[in-house]
């Protein structure tokens, strides 16, 4: 028994009664909640009948057997075993008495089995003694609250159901925080009133704005209701029954609590109505058990306390069963063989099994992102009969590469490189290779022919990721590539999920949500975990397309590709990678020695076949004689196109589209041949030629379309794209049918823009298909977005900007696409441009960065949000006001600190946060003066110095700070932190607002989340050079209280560079006294290097510690040292002071 901890069940709050010995095997949390007049132990404790055998665990160990014997006959009597409806007052103890009686008994551990204190002989507390045998992988808790009268002379609590629910919600959220696993699903087992409390707790959680509380609703898997009066009592109200019994026991019941449980009470109706929505929103599983025996007590009444109808919620998915006991006994079991226990525990077992199965599914779901497969789907499928040469080993070495190196410990050539000119069909070829069955067959056949590998060896799996510069960030990043490949791998080999699950759990703990964002580090760790394991056979061939469209350092990407295969041992884990890119030097440096080929050298036959088929289609309906005359000419035209294309498929596509139109229109073949001969061979010249041919009536719209496609942060849905074009062209939105939209897109862009399939955003818990290399079908969530037909078109438009070849009217002012997107987001942020509205300051920053947009034009774009737009009507404006946008959309709520009265101040602060220097300068030059805004001005300056950014700017903060200082922002005013969370944390710590100058926030708000150490000192130097007060008060912390000088705080925190700056700018040095220097000296043993540097700096300014006992009495030194040690909490220093104290006493220093 010495190996187990004794546990006294707490009367109030949570007590853990069981946990698996191996924490990693804990997959669920079970919480028991008692009912009216119940108790967290008594309610769930049964008394075995004389002669009844003692319950045993499944396959119990010897220690478990001893434990069951002890449960049956030992323990101190700290609680009684009587019922909820009539507590045994003589044996009951109050919470205060329980605390006293439990003195010396440790609180329950978060791990391992326990021994329950307070059981009478023959009693069984089944959540701890029987249930763990059924649910060995679940943590089990019981929760208590004041639903009873403790004793004759003890006052009763008067909490309402809502107040109890809030307590439960807080306790379980705190528990989850301590366990570090909100992702572990929670199952509640509740009796009577406890079910009402739990329902209301989940209702509150579901609508809470506090994330840690809201998460409880998300992670609640199921509730098992035992005798819960969802509609009140049966023939009489449960409150009246309880009231009678309470009076007989000479107790005073909580009237508010009793009234809430009466038949058809408004409280019960309200809770039930809200819970229907909560249950449906979070898909909470429900099982209900009703009593089938009457309560008979004191001959006063005999009836069902909660009848069958009231004990059910009535949800279609609810499982309903009975327990052959009365209301008070239905929660008390003494044996696994009891029918009631079997029914309740079997339901819990089913749920925990489901949780176990779903846990890894949640992990897999968190890796899924539909955008990672969108590019693959949209890549053009190879034309029938083309690209077959890929599998001819006499033409290219691809087949040899697939088959080789499968029986060697270290393969010499694990990477294959397909390179080629821009637009030469690399992506189509990669998709063809992935989908063709010969790829997998060649890999698998070669593997099975190797020695020591049985015929049952698993097939190779095909994985892929296509980088996409025209898409969202995840489509063009290493993170997106890793996430997409991992999701495909784990979907095809689910046996690998356990190796990734622990990483997923850590992310869940960190981010406190069940569907976390995977970071680069976590994705890398997951990949290493699955490739370093040697238990599951893994053979994967990965196709990585368009490396040149990767957003970031291509050297890093190339090196990382080799890291992907570094853990393969080629016995259990085999990995081959085929990459495709343009022939850039960076890729040649890394892949130049790999087996490879240049695609444009082998596609002339494919181009000829494609061109001939496309050009022949328009004449297929003509008479045979006419066709026989035209076919040789078309073949000659096809050969001309093939020769001039020089292997560039995108050139062929554009030219053939134009030729097909000419053939349909009856244009002479000879004239078409002449047109082809005049067409530019270079893609850029071809694109310009195409745009020059657009009708003059459409050129304005064409410019706007190309700019919006170029500048949108991700491809826009076709509806949003066309409305944005309409508003930017005509100042209002014109509705159009899908057919009209498609024709507009073609005629205005010359075919350089296209519609591509994408997918709508899904809820985090929705399931998706994995990347299916055999299929291109679209899911039900598919919609269509607008993008350039090829990356080379985007490159061309980005380079030429307003000089792409369009014949624009001289009166038309061509503007940036960022500006068009900004104005649509501002004007229609409430409706169709909601996504654009979220990024309005990012678009403003990019427009300013581009250089073509000045501050006045940006100010005009934002005017509708400022309630000052001339001629604007409520009917016309469908966006947010600036104040609404900050309250609802802004990711930096502290912009609204001090609630400035004027929109100008809010607008300026937003512009500062987005690093919009031109716009900020324009606002300031309009007459806004920081000196007129005492608190807000300091907050704006602090935000510029240390706050979060509203844009992706990486520029120095100093130019914006100088701009504000130039316009009179007085930096010696005090303000709260530029980060609202910092301010809240400090207020919580010190129970008051913490106001400091911008300089104090820069130097002593630690840690700085948004600026580096180098930036911190550079900004501090700038502020000091412009008159910041070096004697300002520091941000208070554990060892520096309010009104501590900045210099003193920096010395205490050994911030040498900050002290040097402050001394250089003549900070008041009177605070550098002997106690401070002595304190530093005392810390030298533990922080020698930093302390020594600080002491030398101070000595250089004439401050030196004096150790002469004639000058400083030893007792004084002791007091100073003791106080300082307490301030910084150093055990080493405390030990040194303690030794000094011991010696001082013996020497008679202290009297």
Characterise this structure.
The protein has 1151 residues and is α/β, with parallel strands linked by helices. Helix content is 46%, strand content 10%. It has 47 helices and 21 strands. The strands form 6 sheets. The protein has a 7-stranded mixed sheet, sandwiched between helices. A 5-stranded parallel sheet has the order 15-16-17-14-18, with helices on both faces. Strands 19-21-20 form a 3-stranded antiparallel sheet. A hairpin with a 3-residue loop joins strand 11 and strand 12. Helix 27 packs across helix 30 (817-827) and helix 37 (934-946) runs parallel beside helix 40. The longest helix is centred in the N-terminal third of the chain and has 29 residues, at 339-367. It starts with a strand and ends in a 5-residue tail after the last helix. Residues 56-114, 149-153, 234-239, 760-781, 977-994 and 1119-1151 have low confidence and may be disordered.
Please provide a brief summary of the model.
This protein is an alpha/beta fold and 1151 residues long.
